[in-house]
Each structure stands twice: as structure tokens, then as C-alpha cells.
């Protein structure tokens, strides 16, 4: 599964394009973010990517989880969001 790493400085529109491209090619992608700002940008990007995918009749769903990573010798907890392509539209309520 392709992994996209998102930071608080990431452009949500560009990340959304990368998400849409990855799910269009592989049907799934994993997004990793560490920190509140990065998670915020990742979620915005997923919402934008959902709009991109909807133009082709598909939809996205995501499964969040936690990851542990080591950065400069320090263990950090981050958020992993696995995004999958659903061929049918999900009903919105």
C-alpha cells in the first residue's frame, strides 16, 4: 500500500490529488500524520479527494488508527488513515 506522509504545512489540494491518484491506481492508500495540524490537513485532503473521486462515480471510505514512529531517536505516536475506494456512492444523511 502506498504511504503518503502529511505535515501541518502540506497543501490539502495537492495531497487530495495524490490521494485520488493513488486510490484510482491501487484502490487504497495510507496517510500518516503526526500532530494536530498534520491530522487536520490530512482530513481536509481526504474530504477534497472524495469530491474528486465522486466525479467518476466512486466514493471513499477511511479507517483511522495509530502508528508509532521514531523521529530523531524519539518515539512518537501518529495517526494512520487508510483510505479505500468504494465503487458505489455511499448514502449521505
Class derived from helix and strand content: alpha+beta
**Total beta strand runs:** 4
CATH superfamily: Alba-like domain
Strand content: 35-45%
Shape: elongated
Over the alpha carbons, how many angstroms does the gyration radius reach?
A: 13 Å
In spatial order, strands of the major sheet run: 1-2-4-3
Report on the structure:
This protein has 93 residues and is an alpha+beta fold. The protein has a single domain, classed as Translation Initiation Factor IF3. 37% of the residues lie in helices and 39% in strands. It is built from 2 helices and 4 strands; from the N terminus they run βαβαββ. Strands 1-2-4-3 form a 4-stranded mixed beta sheet.
Question: What does the secondary structure layout of this molecule look like, with pairings?
Answer:
Elements: E1 3-6, H1 12-26, E2 28-33, H2 36-54, E3 59-71, E4 74-86
Parallel strand pairs: 1-2
Antiparallel strand pairs: 2-4, 3-4
Q: Would you summarize the structure shown here?
A:
37% of the residues lie in helices and 39% in strands.
Main features:
Translation Initiation Factor IF3; 93 residues; single chain; 4 strands; alpha+beta; four-stranded mixed beta sheet; 2 helices
Amino acid at each position: 500500500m502506498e504511504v503518503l506522509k502529511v505535515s501541518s504545512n502540506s497543501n490539502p489540494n495537492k495531497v487530495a490529488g495524490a490521494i485520488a491518484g493513488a486510490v484510482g491506481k491501487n484502490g487504497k492508500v495510507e496517510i500518516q500524520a503526526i500532530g494536530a495540524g498534520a491530522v487536520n490537513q490530512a482530513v481536509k485532503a481526504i474530504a477534497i479527494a472524495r469530491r474528486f473521486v465522486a466525479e467518476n462515480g466512486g466514493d471513499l471510505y477511511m479507517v483511522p488508527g495509530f502508528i508509532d514512529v521514531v523521529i530523531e531517536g524519539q518515539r512518537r505516536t501518529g495517526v494512520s488513515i487508510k483510505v479505500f475506494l468504494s465503487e458505489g456512492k455511499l448514502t449521505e444523511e
